[in-house]
Amino acid sequence: MSDEFNASIENLFDPALSKATRFAKGTEIRKTTPRSAHQQWNIPEKRRDPIEILIETNIGRIETLLPIRYQRMMESPFAFFRGAAAIMAEDLAHTPNSGIHLQLCGDCHLMNFGGFATPERKLVFDINDFDETYPGPWEWDLKRLSTSFAIAGKWRNFSDKHCKEFAWHTADSYKRHMLDYSHLSALQIWYADIDLSELIEMGEDEEIKKFHLKRIKKASEYTAHEKEFAKMTYQQGPRARIKDEPPLIYHPTIREEEEVLKAAEKAHILYIESLSDDKKILLSRYKLHDIAIKVVGVGSVGTMCGITLLMSATGEPIFLQFKEARKSVLEANLKNKSKYTHQGERIVIGQKLMQSASDMFLGWTSDDQNRFFYIRQLRDAKVKPVLEIMKSDNMIDYAKSCGWALARAHARSGDPSVVSGYIGKGNEFADAIAKFSMAYAAQNEIDYTKMLEAIKEGRLPIAPDV
């Protein structure tokens, strides 16, 4: 795509233009990149070996944890997909591009959505993982999300027809809600959120509704930090300590512990500086008591992640989660370079751009080894999707919910009028995304098999008893 065309895309965001004019500009882009082109998945002539990409992403990770990473990815093609964002990022760079850029999640799959409590204690449905967030073509997020439904559907043994429907409904919901947001003001979009209880009530499956409403009630009834404190700590003299559960939760060695705690205290001070003054005052009433490494997720395994326990003088706990912030997998596949030198800041700002409400303790920091981190509460009334109990209708409802949440997130930093103009009101775009999703799901299966072969050959580390 020419530089002149990219420059014209930037001009589409001129607020002086009417919504109708911007919608028409979006429609014009179809002449350069037809909507039907998005159905294409053609293997690039010089596609890199996906195993080489995985090995490259191991650089800088904790080597002793890498076997856990690949053990988790071995579980299914869907688990592999969750840990292989870098592979798909390179592949997406070879697909047709609308040229319309906005803030992306970067690792937009169906398990990175769910319910959580806002600082006002309202439960909302939204995206909840932003490690790879970066500005880029809006359709990259939608293609990864829709593909995740096709792959998860295959993992759950749904038919190909159902899997394609899941992907289609994801894209169709995105289209319909983006059109709705195109009629709102920028401020109205910024205020918009998705109430989790109302979303669940919209479903028609009474059994699944009761299940989720019970989970919401349970999530709302307790103070997360106090429950986690009772479950995750023990008393060692005057000091509360996080329980070890190796290899998933563990402390540094006794020899390293004092040094690690000192480094953590320095990093904690830098973290506090990244917060607003009111949060600084709040956290000044708590002192860092303990720190432990915690293995999380699939794609994050091997990065430096963990939990810190803060205690007030009167014994009230707060658990914070820190996650190492590395370069987004999207950056190497886009011409635009990040404006943030601190990767933790990149993640925090991207999250605040996309989420309807972000964690009140969301901030960033660094350590003495020049590693970047971002920090948030460990858990706060989180409600995660339970795919194992979903029937096909439930999967369709969930696909619609995720498509809606993604449209809302994109509408905050992008121009919904331009995006809606490009998508149009018919089914052509959703049809194309559904076809792409099924084609890429097949590619993911091939790459998954290559990973299994690489593990057998010893190219990727795995626990000896697997």
From TrEMBL:
InterPro entries: DUF2252. It holds the Pfam family DUF2252. This is DUF2252 domain-containing protein. It comes from Flavobacterium procerum.
